[in-house]
Amino acid sequence: LMASALYPSFKEALLTAGLDLEADDIRVILVDTDDYTYSGAHEVLDDVDAGSRVATSGALVSKTIAGGVFDALDVTLSSVSGDPSEALVLYKHTGDASTSPLVAYIDGIAVTPNGGDIVISWHASGIFAL
Fold first, then answer.
1. How buried is residue 83: exposed, middle or buried, by Cβ count under 10 Å (0-12/13-18/19+)?
2. What count of Cα atoms within 13 Å lies in the side-chain half-sphere of residue 100?
3. Do residues 57 and 75 lie in contact, with contact meaning Cβ atoms separated by under 8 Å?
4. Overall average pLDDT of the 53-59 stretch
5. Which range has the worst mean pLDDT, 5-19, 36-50, 114-128?
6. What's the rounded Cα separation, in Å, for the pair 81 and 54?
7. DSSP string computed for 44-87
8. pLDDT digits over 62-108, tens only?
9. pTM higher than 0.70, yes or no?
């Protein structure tokens, strides 16, 4: 079981003002960990094999940053089918997978898509904290 982690390239982008979680288009992907393994060397969406991406959200809404915690409203992925999934990957959507920076890897979920909607309910204390 892989622990959740912030991608090192995301940390660098924060420290160099290369990414703005509140203003940028941040999205989440439901990931099959049989097909994707987290690596700190991964930097952009292209590094997450397309075959491991089970579903992708639209832009997160009502994003907030308070006390070092990033949060947003819960997300609904519509009509999801595909492989069982065990993790989420947050990324900044640029419209091009080769330039869309990875933000966070969140492990420890378990969902088996059945064609219905999947609601991602963020933890009460936020999506992640620095």
1. middle
2. 19
3. yes
4. 97
5. 5-19
6. 7
7. BGGGS-GGGEEEE-----S-EEETTEEE---EEE-S--SS-EEE
8. 999 888 899 999 999 999 999 999 999 999 999 999 999 999 999 98
9. yes
